[in-house]
Amino acid sequence: MAAPERPEAASSSSIPDYECVNVNSKAFHIGSFRDEWLKRLQPEDFSFQQLDQDAFDAKFAAEMGVREETMAELRAVCSADSLRCHPEDQEPDKEDRQTVGMVPETKADMLPEGEVIVTVNIYFPTNLGKFNGVRPRMTLLLTGSHTLADLRDAICCVSDLQVCGEFSSTPDMVPDFISKFLPSFMSLLLGSSTTIEWAKSHNYPSFSQAKMEDTRFVDLTVKLGFPYLYCHQGDCEHPVIITDVRLVHKSDCLDKRLYPLLTHKNRSLSQKCAVCHVFIGRWYTTQDQFAPSDPCLFCDKCFRMLHYDKDGKKLGEFLAYPYVDRGAFN
Ligand SMILES: [Zn+2]
Ligand SMILES: [Zn+2]
Fold first, then answer.
1. Torsion of CA 155, 158, 160, 166, to 10 degrees
2. Measured between alpha carbons, how far is 264 from 83 in angstroms, rounded to an integer?
3. How many separate domains does the chain show?
4. What Gene Ontology cellular-component terms does the record carry (predicted)?
5. Do the domain assignments include residue 110?
6. Residue 158 C-alpha to ligand 1 middle, in angstroms?
7. Same domain, yes or no, for 231 and 159?
8. What are the tens digits of pLDDT across the range 14-39?
9. Residues 138, 204: one domain?
10. What is the pLDDT of residues 164-204, one digit of tens each?
11. Residues 40 and 149 reside in one and the same domain
């Protein structure tokens, strides 16, 4: 988080300042913060026009007070061409490619100059007991014109795929896709009606409520580094932390179709089938006379081979539940 120099007249709610040092900022309005930057910068500072390399070098040398020999050394050692996160003969990961200066083919898909970029960390659900405040499940870059609904749709969580129920007699009836009508919400950014009622009854300051589809980041007043909450499927609660708000730079991915842009994903360990130890678990059974443990996890193939005859008839007694592995989004 970097704040521009603070003139006397500036409103405190448009320039972030620490509330807790090195932890989180006070609340500020993202759109006003962007406007403060745009007022102070020259258009060429946030322009996407590439500077002529010689002109750039001369400006850099003058600003840093270094001589021509030093510039030549910097060019040789620190140029972007010498940076590599993969072996020379291999293609970089798709995710790596997207984040480095990608320019769209048509102008219509180009991010506008002066657009604001918001970095959001989404953590594992707290009910998994994995929130340690250090390693986010994923990091997304969103633009100021994205809505909270765009953020919600970009969050991958197995809870959205989990089918509840016992299917040992009808394993083919497990739907591939289920629509769930439990509402999701971002709390503290926006409260759900339950949160609002609860806050009222406990004498907390009043919350406002708005639709995620109608709420753009640029219109939000937020605290950087402060844990907010995304809740979906009833009780799957993810801490969400905004870690940075800045203007888009010409070295960013400039293709707006690729945003929300995933820049980091924490891969989860997959739980393997207890029989073949090769495939990822798709079923777990309980009270199962064929299983070495209770509950026991099976891949689809082993589950069907062990528990059904060739006509698909259930063999023996057991209860079977569909299982979605946490590594499904790796
Ligand atoms: Zn979730
Ligand atoms: Zn298996």
1. 180
2. 19
3. 2
4. nucleus; snRNA-activating protein complex
5. yes
6. 6
7. yes
8. 999 999 999 999 999 999 999 999 99
9. yes
10. 889 999 998 887 655 555 567 776 555 567 777 777 788 87
11. yes
Residue 303 CB coordination number (10 Å): 25
Identify which ligand lies nearest to the alpha carbon of 234: 1
From the list 279, 325, 269, 270, the residue with the least C-alpha distance to 305 is 279
Domain termination residue (choose one: 265, 293, 308): 265
The greatest distance separating any two alpha carbons of the chain, rounded to the nearest whole angstrom, comes to: 82
Measured in Å, residue 128 CA sits from the centre of ligand 2 at: 25
119, 160: one domain? yes
Q: What pLDDT score was predicted for residue 25?
A: 92
Distance CA 310, CA 328 (A): 29
Q: How far is the CA of 168 from the centre of ligand 1 (A)?
A: 26
195 in the same domain as 132:
yes
Domain range spanning residue 29? 18-47+94-165+175-265
Distance 296 CA to ligand 2 centre (A): 11
Give distance in angstroms: CA of 145 to centre of ligand 1. Answer: 24
Residue 130 pLDDT > 80: no
Mark the residues whose beta carbon lies below 5 A from ion ligand 2: 273, 275-276, 279, 299, 302
Residues 143, 152 contacting (CB under 8 angstroms)? no
Strand partners, 262: 140
- Look at residue 9 in the predicted model and tell me its pLDDT: 41
**How much is the pLDDT for 183?**
65
Residue 61 lies in a domain: no
Residues 107 and 221 in one domain: yes
Please check whether residue 70 lies inside any domain of the structure.
no
Q: Is the pTM of this model over 0.85?
A: no
Distance (angstroms) between ligand 2 centre and the Cα of 236 equals 29
Last residue of a domain, one of 233, 265, 297: 265
Is residue 184 included in any domain, yes or no?
yes
Residues shown for the chain: 330
Ligand with smallest separation from the Cα of 271: 2
**Residue 156 CA to ligand 1 centre (angstroms):** 8
Instruction: Tell me: do 209 and 258 sit in the same domain.
Output: yes
How many CB atoms sit inside 10 A of residue 286's CB? 15
Beta-carbon neighbours within 5 Å of ion ligand 1: 125, 157, 159, 236
Looking at the fold, whether 289 and 252 belong to one and the same domain comes out as no
Q: Say yes or no to pLDDT of 76 above 60.
A: yes
